[in-house]
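Action item from last week, closing it out:
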Amino acid sequence: MIAYDQLPVGWFYPDDVAAYRWAYEELVPEGGHTAEVGVYYGRSLISVSDIIKRKRIHVAAVDNFGPVFGQYDPTRLLRVMRHMGIAGVPDLVAICVGDSLEIANQVKEHALDLVFVDAEHDYASVIADIRAWEPKIKVGGWISGHDYSDGDPGVVAAVNEKYGKPHHLKGWCWFVQL
């Protein structure tokens, strides 16, 4: 496991790292398939990179690599690629550059064990990501995401509207089994 203070920049805190590690250990089978929708600089993926390697999990890392909070970093994609290389997972993490809804359309139904939604945080974007990615999850698989908190009412409203309350809450991460 990479030390917390060695992770790339981002808003994934120790409780969130613990939750994501729990998900990759307990919810994703060996050789499983996942998607992370919203990558930023790869902090969350790097936090589970040792599990990805050990269990040979295949990950679709989905991001449009556009501006974040109005700030555009033209090096962000290259930095994420470098982080995946340093972590030793470039053969297991496919970086998918583009709109999450368009990329979801390219994924077979019932192909994924876990989808983690952490892109835009407004209600319309979160509900659209949930609706687009849910059919891609295997029966018994999990949809989840980040920022289920008072600070992100759009996330909370979308998740609650779709599922009632999440089945598990750990840190700011939510999990629902399908």
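Closing note: Helices lie at 14-26, 43-47, 49-55, 76-87, 100-105, 123-133, 153-163.
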